[in-house]
Design brief:
Blueprint (H helix, E strand, L loop, with lengths): L2 E5 L21 E10 L12 H11 L1 E10 H39 L5 H20 L5 E6 L2 E5 L3 H13 L4 H9 L1
Keywords: Membrane, Transmembrane, Transmembrane helix
Length: 184
């Protein structure tokens, strides 16, 4: 997936061209409200020490950006459906993992075999990964970083990335032109 760097304040219908960031289509494109959040991935290392510490550090370092991005209706629905299914699969995985852990412990205590607990734990980890690959991967923008007023996204369409990047560069004044305006 190509990477696209957008100024956070230019994620809107006025500053971006009408090209779907998922499919690259230019017909039937509408701008939809999006919200992104990002925190440094090294924060995950603190989970080993304590989940609460990791959560607090992630909360403190989280950067947020919101705006509008161009989508076709089908691409938007597919991306939103994938996000919903992924969230549901994570919740289901947590419940399944806890239930499987109790089955595992009770089976080991009673007859010394793991019973259905071990496959349940494996399924709990496999479920969100499978849902992500089937319904979310390459279906919409993926935030890579938010820093210094810029949002770095990975988007599925090479054509859209090129079109938007060229559009943003064309809208910037050249350094020489800026100096000429200041002296006039």
């Amino acid at each position: 997936m190509p990477q696209l760097v957008l100024p956070a304040n230019e994620m809107n219908e006025f500053d971006l061209p009408r090209v779907c960031i998922v499919t690259g289509q230019t017909e039937g494109v509408v701008f939809k409200d999006v919200k992104f959040s990002w925190y440094p991935r090294w924060v995950s290392l603190f989970v080993v020490l304590n989940v609460l510490i990791a959560a607090l550090i992630a909360f403190a370092l989280t950067k947020r950006a919101k705006g509008q991005l161009p989508f076709t209706e089908d691409a938007w629905k597919q991306w939103k459906r994938g996000q919903l299914l992924f969230g549901f699969s994570v919740v289901l995985a947590i419940v399944l993992c806890m239930g499987s852990f109790f089955l595992l412990m009770s089976g080991l205590r009673e007859n010394g075999t793991p019973g259905l607990g071990a496959p349940g734990i494996v399924l709990a980890f496999a479920l969100p990964i499978t849902v992500w690959f089937l319904f979310l991967r390459n279906k919409g923008p993926l935030v890579e970083r938010i820093a210094e007023g810029q949002v770095t996204l990975k988007i599925p369409s090479d054509f859209a990335a090129d079109t938007i990047a060229r559009h943003l560069v064309a809208g910037q004044a050249l350094p020489g032109a800026q100096r000429a305006r200041r002296s006039a």
